[in-house]
Amino acid sequence: MILEGFLAVVSISGLFWIFLGTIVGIIFGAIPGLTATMAIVMFIPVTYSLPPATSIALLLSLYIGGISGGLIPPILINIPGTPASIATCFEGYPMTLQGKGGQALGYGVVFSFFGTLISVLALVLISPSLAALAIKFGPFEYAAVTIFSLSLIITLSADNMVKGVMSGLIGLVFATVGMAPIDSVTRYTFGFVNLRSGFDILTVLVGIYAIPEILEIAERSKWIKRIETEEIGKIKIKGFGFSFSEFIIQIPNAIRSAFIGIGLGILPGIGNGTSNILAYSVAKNQSKHPEKFGTGIPDGLVATETANNATIGGTIIPLLTLGIPGDSTAALLLGALIINGITPGPLIFQESGSVVYAIYFAMIISSLIMLFLDLYGINLFVKILNIPKHYLFPAVFVLCAIGAFGLNNRLFDIAILIFFGLVGYFLKKSEYPLPPLILGFVLGPIFELNLRRALSYSQGGLLPFVSRPISLMFLVLTIVSIGFGLFKNSKRKA
Amino acid sequence: MMWQKYKELISSSVITVVGLVYFILAFSIRQYGDAVLDSRFLPLVLGVLLVVFGSVKLFGSIRQTLRQEHETATMNSPETGSRIHVLLTIALMIGYAFALKPLGFLFSTSVYMFLQTIILFPNKKKNVVIMIAVSLIFSITVYLVFTRVFSLVLPRGILG
Fold first, then answer.
1. Is the per-residue pLDDT at B52 higher than 90?
2. Which of residues 49-78 of B touch A (CB under 8 A)?
3. Is B46's CB within 8 Å of A173's CB?
4. Is the dihedral of CA A250, A255, A256, A257 positive or negative?
5. DSSP 3-state assignment of B35?
């Protein structure tokens, strides 16, 4: 079975498709406005003519390439291409401004690989037990997890907690637009049919981050000197830009972040959008020098990129063992599996064992390819910085507009993109942090859905939140993390 | 200038007002049955929180502004941004969004790229020919790649 799986993937055809998938994935991930999910959607028809193992291998390579490619724009131009790379901006861009852009890319790529590897290991060794644990998560646990994740907003915005909380609230507010969970009541649609489905995370994310960048350049256009871009773009990296001993130093951080990524990946409904920020916060809290975070140190970058790639493996676990997709991308993979005659679930190992092993090998090979491509590509990517901003950013906007338009073929989405761009610009100018907004926007629906379900089950009682062990644990973690954050904040101000 | 001095005041009042409006509009959300938490709950809570926090910020900024008035504020405003460029960019983006369907992708994108590049150009000599060339080549390349290779539908407009 193992051999069958291995051979299916390592054949000429198999390797070709994995290679292609990884490259296309990286390209899609690297362009803000395009996502790995889009790439997967586009390639599904291609898989109809391919054998099962190769089909899944192709789609997985697109996913892995996409999440890895997603680290390029946040590091180079401070625009996260996907929600999975938001926290990558925090350290990656400051590093670029210090002339260490190539090194940042190097860290990102290597630890993305590391994250995927660890998650495949988890996949291979402990999927059944992890799946068993995931089943224990009911609405109470989900609500508690989301409360905990939302409380991270407090720790993340240590500099200005009130503004951070307000930003998070604004994100939650935007998430309520559309049809409510459970009873599908329309909220804040003002009669617009187009608003019924709410705002799409991509439009919000790209609008909030990309457009203010462009507007700020417009604002400073009188003073942008060519020199600043030239200095930054001159880096040439040998290898990955950092030494082996520096790699070893980051390993504990990376392993912890990988587990966070795997953990959140296993929970259906929560994915890399949350895991990268969570891993970053934890890294910051546990670090001996938290005040350095945000100035451009590798630790934060390592945490983020390890976590978001590890989440991929984490998402595969419930997908294969329970047939439950963790997010829309996983749902696509589920569809692809079914089309190819593979039924996910507890029997998958008996019935389609070779495909499962093919999946494991495909993930490893795809990550290796990604590693090599990026190793030689880093110097190429950094050249992007040499493109004058007045050419680069209009192009970025057009691509973002296409990305937004391509979601649902609606020009309305471009208008929404610009709207959120204005919101983001206003908040940025008023010195409100943006990440809490995204966090609130992503977590809001999950939180509300599960809270209402939970209270429905318990007939309004709040006891189960503390009597159920997992839920209790997360609520305690929330209190601890908030307390810690407030304590550190008052210590700093003193 | 005005923004630098009053940005806290303006931003906190805007947010507070938005929170208030959000809260009031929450009452028009329909309620069904007797669920413990209905769809009105979260909006109401969020509205209250936003107004509370916004007011805290607002009062803080009012006090700060009053204090500043007493100090003779001869703040040298640091480089004041070029506001006109920002407004032009926003107008251009909105125009682009509206022009896409009627004028089609190729035309709108080329025009947008060209105009936007002019706006963002630093104060140096502009080479118009290069700008036109870049806009056209970029638009055509993107169009071909997205429609032929990725089978995405882009508006044809007047050139279709």
1. yes
2. 49-50, 53-54, 56-57
3. yes
4. positive
5. coil
Say whether B106 sits in a helix, a strand or coil.
helix
- Give the predicted TM-score (pTM) of the model: 0.83
Indicate yes or no: CB of A185 within 8 angstroms of CB of B39.
yes
Taking the C-alpha atoms of B115, B119, B123 and B129 in order, what is their torsion angle to the nearest 10 degrees?
A: -10
- Angle of CA points A84, A88, A89, to nearest 5°: 115
Round to whole Å and give the CA distance between A91 and A298.
Answer: 7
Q: Does B6 touch chain A (CB under 8 A)?
A: no
Q: Six-digit token pair at B61? A: 């900024």
Q: Which residues contact B129 (CB under 8 A, 6 or more apart)?
A: none
Tell me the backbone φ, ψ of residue A186, rounded to 5 degrees. -80, 130
Reported as a single tens digit per residue, the pLDDT across B62-77 is: 888 888 766 555 555 5
Nearest beta carbon to residue B82 from set A180, A222, A393: A222
Q: Is the pLDDT of residue A122 over 60?
A: yes
Task: With beta carbons under 8 A apart, name residues in chain B contacting A166.
Answer: 15, 50, 53-54, 57
Alpha helices per DSSP H over A11-51: 12-30, 36-47
CB A105 within 8 A of CB A241: yes
Query: How far does the CA of residue A460 sit from the closest CA of chain B (Å)?
Result: 6
Q: Which of A42, A217, A398 sits opposite B112 (nearest CB)?
A: A398
More confident call, A89 vs B159: A89
Among B residues 95-134, those touching chain A with beta carbons less than 8 Å apart = 96-98, 100-101, 109, 112-113, 116-117, 119-124, 134
Helix A161-175 with A469-493: angle, nearest 10 deg: 140
Out of A411, A444, A456, the one facing B36 most closely (by C-beta) is: A456
ipTM of this complex > 0.85? Answer: yes
Closest CA to B8 of B64, B72, B74, B79: B64
Measured in whole angstroms, the distance separating CA B145 from the mean position of its chain's CA atoms is: 29
Q: Which two tokens stand for residue A317?
A: 């676990």
Scan for tokens 């705002």, then name that residue.
Answer: A199
Best probe of the B interface among A146, A187, A216, by most B CBs < 10 A, is A187
Burial readout B76-85 (b: 16 or more C-beta within 10 A, e: otherwise): eeeeebbeeb
Task: Note the helical H segments in A48-160.
Answer: 52-69, 72-77, 86-97, 101-135, 139-156
Q: Are A218 and B115 in contact (CB under 8 A)?
A: no
CA distances from A87 to A67, A74, A152, A192, B22 (A): 13, 9, 13, 33, 29
CB-CB: which of B29, B56, B100 is closest to A411? B100
The answer to whether A223 contacts B30, with C-beta atoms less than 8 Å apart, is no
